[in-house]
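Input sequence (341 aa), recorded before submission:
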Amino acid sequence: MFSLAGKSLYVDALDLWIDSMRTRERCYVSHGHSDHAREHRVVVTTPNTAAICRARFSRRRESAPQLSLLPRQEKPRVDVSFEEHRFNEPWSEGEHRLTLFSAGHVLGSSQLLIEGESGAFVYTGDFKLAPSYTAEPPEVKRCDVLLMECTYGRPQYAFPPREEVAASMVAFARETLEAGAVPVFFAYSLGKAQEAIAILGNASIPITVHGAVDTITAVYEACGVSMPPYKRYHADDFDVTSALVWPPGGKALPKALRDREVRTAVLTGWSLDRGALFRYGTQRGFALSDHADYPSLLRYIELAAPKKVLLNHGWRDFVYRLRALGIDAEYLEENAQLTLF
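Predicted structure, token format:
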């Protein structure tokens, strides 16, 4: 039995939660983004995601207020242990076989394959099929039931080739620097920031990064990902001839840029939306995404060849687009109870 309690997925037969936002006894975590990775007593994940989670959980603990200051608001921290499984090294739990395989989303991101007498089930979590500069190549496995995210499940979200996006980012950075201004790229500290560093650094553009970006990039390097040179931002010695990679949550420009001309850009698939620049408050937008675009969603289903497609985390009308193509599709509603195994 498979169920969705609130926004938390649960596999009854395995007593296993999937990407739960609440603390659980044992939970599979597909990748290190905060909307998927929470502190559980046992986190089932890949070694690289475990390394990212250790760094992020430690940072949360350091920045959290003391319990004595907020006794009613702050919950006691959980002692987290990690159950690590490498890609394509299956293990057995009762009558089922479980396998983690690459999602291509960010470093360490995985999909979960559960096989039993009743067939094969795949949970994609967040994924992309496009090539990446800093994450493992994605995989697709055939299955009977597929539960996939569909963040960009509308036809207008067809991203340009990654090489084209990268060339546009490099051109923007160079033109800005030649004009005596500072290019600022807003990118999530996990995943997109490392892609930006790779793109700009491989084009020999000097790079300065936010402290949170530096922390995660150090984990990438410790996991064996080769990164171009970059510097961590310090207000007293900021190099104004470098591009700045900054988390979108820190849109207040750093102190060293207050009296300087800056040109800003956001890195997101939503930059294809009309009015995106106004919404993000930037001068440019580049469709650098760590999610699958609309054509990739369809291609994934074609390759996986499932009998049933379940959808979550995206546009509900993607269901009707799939049904029009003859695909048995359903949007997974809260409190759904489905027999899959």
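Checked by second reader. Helices lie at 47-63, 162-178, 192-201, 211-222, 276-280, 294-304, 318-324.
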